[in-house]
Amino acid sequence: MSLNHSDETHRNLLARVPSVTGRELPEWFEALEAGPSFLRFDDRVRWLRDEHGLAHGHATAIVHEADLRRAARNFG
Q: Which residues, other chains included, contact 3 with Cβ-Cβ below 8 Å and sequence gap of 6+?
């Protein structure tokens, strides 16, 4: 699975995460790091959806943004 929406939609989803979930993005990134060590994108999205009750779009945006930030740290 990959990101299937535009950059603008991604930014909009991320902006709404705190109000929809009650948690800020850094908290979600920490949850992903502390959660199961899934390597596949879709497994991490599914885990957020199943374990935390997130909508698919928000879970996808969180995982994608976490991957982008990790890549920036590793290659930046």
A: 10, 60, 64
Report the alpha-carbon distance of residue 27 to residue 23 in Å, rounded.
6
Q: How is residue 47 written in tokens?
A: 């885990």
The DSSP element (H or E) to which 59 belongs, if any, is helix 56-75
Q: Which of these, 33, 36, 37, lies nearest to 66 by C-alpha position?
A: 33
Closest listed residue to residue 28, CA positions, set 57, 1, 56, 54 = 54
Domain ranges of the chain: 3-75
- What are the tens digits of pLDDT across the range 1-30? 456 778 999 999 999 999 999 999 999 999
Q: What is the pTM of this model?
A: 0.90
